[in-house]
Amino acid sequence: xxxxxxxxxxxxxxxxxxxxxxxxxxxxxxxxxxxxxxxxxxxxxxxxxxxxxxxxxxxxxxxxxxxxxxxxxxxxxxxxxxxxxxxxxxxxxxxxxxxxxxxxxxxxxxxxxxxxxxxxxxxxxxxxxxxxxxxxxxxxxxxxxxxxxxxxxxxxxxxxxxxxxxxxxxxxxxxxxxxxxxxxxxxxxxxxxxxxxxxxxxxxxxxxxxxxxxxxxxxxxxxxxxxxxxxxxxxxxxxxxxxxxxxxxxxxxxxxxxxxxxxxxxxxxxxxxxxxxxxxxxxxxxxxxxxxxxxxxxxxxxxxxxxxxxxxxxxxxxxxxxxxxxxxxxxxxxxxxxxxxxxxxxxxxxxxxxxxxxxxxxxxxxxxxxxxxxxxxxxxxxxxxxxxxxxxxxxxxxxxxxxxxxxxxxxxxxxxxxxxxxxxxxxxxxxxxxxxxxxxxxxxxxxxxxxxxxxxxxxxx
Length: 461
Description:
Number of helices: 19
Helix content: 55-70%
Largest sheet: 8 strands, mixed
Distance between the termini: 71 Å
Strand order of the largest sheet: 3-2-1-4-5-6-7-8
Strand content: 5-15%
Radius of gyration: 32 Å
Shape: elongated
């Protein structure tokens, strides 16, 4: 092979595919600019090539028909309502890869997905759904501050691979979602509003409302009714600072409760090869979000606690107490039990909050991707249960022996912290049962594939 032939071969080997784009809106222009930066020749198809402006420098602008003659891959960046112009180009689209990047205004807007409709409209074209989960802003910013995942689906594997290769050349991460039947799910994905956060936020909101009403009744309304004492100022700091720790602790326990329930279900069934109930599956999928919401409430509790010494009502009580001691010429002796209790209360709170933050940090993808599975499981499971134990003990030390004193049961209602530690205590007791050697060994065997054979089947064998 001569030198000139080798050079020609090397140039062709590294030459990228020419890409055609129909649509000169924000997405089409951003995609064209990114493709040009990645070394792809770009041709825009337009009804009026002479009047097309604001297009990236270096891109060609041709009529739709002329553009199709030059390219094998066409990105269709127009809305579904404007697909009709493609009918006149159906012959030129024969065997071409047509990438539908469209989205709808609302979920399930049409009976079929836009990509399936396009495939029916142009049966000669090879339709691939993709790039609809990437925004024009993400393409302009180089995906540095946005998701780089690109969902791709289609009925032709070779065409899908070509589109995925284009995505990789742009520095994006393509994910094959199967056939074109998955297009509807892919089109609905960008329209979902925090799908994994709805249940955690709903639970947090419900608990917040419950504890707010409960604390207002026992801390504000009760003194007003029984003693004609107006302590409504507590609504600003005191009441929220009772809500935040209780909600946070319950949410943290709800992170680990489904795992314990799942273990006992597997233990009862004697196998891991049966699906969990749908409600448990959904619960387990949103554990990360539950934990992050719990951490947010814990942060608020810490912030509200820091300002306690600066409150007028607290400073007034301290000064009033000192004046009363001076009048009586008495000095309150230091209680070692109380000192131990308060110091242990703060120590457990700080340790628990520190581990809380560690759990939150390791849940972020940038951190979790840097550790192996065993390290991640150690932090999220073992240290997670330690965090729950420390925070529960922190709450228990706050109450100390109040649950034994009738004066704290206003109108017969227990203090809020007593309600807040019920679910955490249940989770810790169940976890303690689960980690006992006899139970733990059986759960490990089941998760390794062992199955308990029913007695009826044993008799047949």
